[in-house]
Amino acid sequence: MSERFRGFLPVVIDVETGGFNAKTDALLEIAAVTIGMDEQGFVFPESRESSHVIPFDGANIEKSAIEFIGIDPFHPLRIASPEEEILATIFKTVRKALKRYGCNRAVLVGHNASFDLSFLNAAVERCDIKRNPFHPFSCFDTASLSGLAYGQTVLARACDVAGIPFDKEEAHSARYDTDRTAELFCSIVNRWKELGGWID
């Protein structure tokens, strides 16, 4: 793994939010899946963390955003945790994987990854976390990769072409979208290897 991605460990992240502005809008859900590698060099989804997030103090939540993703941030039965607690748990899992695979830093994998990375970085800054295992600006975008590999940039359509089941009723849950994005990323990387594009 450390040789395949130049010392980076791919970690799939998906967020559900109260809008599009990472600085002002609430982070409502976050999920992470670390990517593992077998002895033959094929990658696979490994460890997963996911949680509902308590909106930070003063966070903006657009009505149109929560209607689209179907989340009620203030539902009395919604079990959620503070950003700092959730990030600590995710980063602990990521650091264990970094050590296991001999990698130097995590790189975020996401579908339209710059969006997820901007919200992750904003949460890290709010929580004053000094040791962020993720690269601050590099990322792998499965929208671009699946456009190349499968001719599709929408997650559901790319999964369909790749033969990955996708339930549209489950979509826009950070946990579900992260799982599907992880499978899609692994499908593309492994297909490239099978075609001879990656020489060990």
Task: Describe the 3D structure.
By secondary structure, this protein is α/β, with parallel strands linked by helices. It has helices at residues 63-69, 83-101, 113-126, 142-150, 155-162, 174-194, and strands at 8-17, 27-37, 43-53, 80-81, 105-110, 134-141. The protein has a six-stranded mixed β-sheet, with helices on both faces. The N and C termini lie close together (11 Å).
Quick synopsis:
The protein has 200 residues and is of the alpha/beta class. It contains six helices and six strands; from the N terminus they run E-E-E-H-E-H-E-H-E-H-H-H.
Number of strands: 6
Main sheet: strands, sense, barrel: 6 strands, mixed
Query: What gap, in angstroms, lies between the N and C termini?
Result: 11 Å
- Spatial arrangement of strands, main beta sheet: 4-3-2-1-5-6
Structural class: alpha/beta
Mean pLDDT, to the nearest integer, reads 95
Gyration radius, in Å = 17 Å
Poorly predicted regions are none
Q: Overall 3D geometry?
A: globular
The topology string of helices and strands comes to EEEHEHEHEHHH
Number of helices in the DSSP assignment = 6
| Beta content | 15-25%
List keywords for this structure.
200 residues, six-stranded mixed sheet, globular
Topology summary:
Blueprint (H helix, E strand, L loop, with lengths): L7 E10 L9 E11 L5 E11 L9 H7 L10 E2 L1 H19 L3 E6 L2 H14 L7 E8 H9 L4 H8 L11 H21 L6
Parallel strand pairs: 1-5, 3-4, 5-6
Antiparallel strand pairs: 1-2, 2-3
